Amino acid sequence: MWQHRNFPLLCLFNSYAIPFLIAKFGWNDGLGGLLYAGIIRIFLFQQATNCVNSLAHWLGDQPYADTNSPRDHIFTALITFGEGYHNFHHEFPADYRNGIRWFDYDPTKWFISLASPTSIISAWLGFACHLQEFESNEVNKAIFQQKWKQMEKLKRQINWGTPLDVLPIYSWSEYEALCINHGGSKYLVCVAGVIYDVKPFVDSHPGGRTLIEAYVGKDATASFHGGVYRHSKAASNLLDNMRFGVVRGGSRVDLHQQKVRHLNGLFKSSSISANSPLLSSLDKTC
């Protein structure tokens, strides 16, 4: 083709000769046109183009994949005319777009879209057809996988407290004996069958020291979950870091219900009625 055979001359003419001639015959400043519209413009455009393989692999996020170095960033997109959404380009190279969201700065995408058969001005342009777009399901899948990987990384950095399955097991009487109000030395509170050592938090408790001390050695499940105050998720998370042990059979209420069920089972197999005064009196002592 003619333009291929004469490519070097066309580059020199369009890059330097035309700016010089326009400035020369337009306002008699050919050297100014050559310098600003020629040399400096070419220099800046070359630097912007090279940013695709430098800045676009260093600045920004990796919302689709992190196996390689390309990244997405609006600053790189502004100076490279849309090529700054480089992570998407590397992950979905068949897609004609770089920035897939409507507000992503991608002039190339906009021009190609206008030149496509679906455009209202395609009748006189007709430059582009059969534009390829990756399925949105696959794009969303990549986004989800990347976010999941980041969440797993964050999860490994968080202290979730001692796992419940490795905590020591105490009977209710053993739990009470450890507490300061029963001759022990610890500030222990039971919530939903889990024993917590709240001593580091006693002086920091928003409700005051007296309130939290009132539940030492007791079952604070109902109070913690709304009886006194419905604590936030953050409070539950903070409590997880104070795990001390678990109560055998659960909370005091659970132990009481187990004893009642046991007594009911015994009396069902005997001649004594389950609703007799004898059962009621035994129930009150459990």
Automatic annotation (TrEMBL):
- Compartment(s) where it occurs, according to its Swiss-Prot or TrEMBL record: Membrane
GO cellular component: a single term: endoplasmic reticulum membrane
Q: Which SMART domains match?
A: Cyt-b5
Query: Can you give the residue ranges of the Cytochrome b5 heme-binding domain?
Result: 167-248
Name the major location: membrane
| The keyword Transit peptide belongs to this UniProt entry's keyword annotation | no
Query: Molecular function terms in GO for this entry?
Result: heme binding; iron ion binding; stearoyl-CoA 9-desaturase activity
**Protein family (similarity comment):** Belongs to the cytochrome b5 family.
Q: What is this protein called?
A: Acyl-CoA desaturase
Origin organism is Trichoderma harzianum
Q: Tell me the organism's taxonomic lineage.
A: Eukaryota, Fungi, Dikarya, Ascomycota, Pezizomycotina
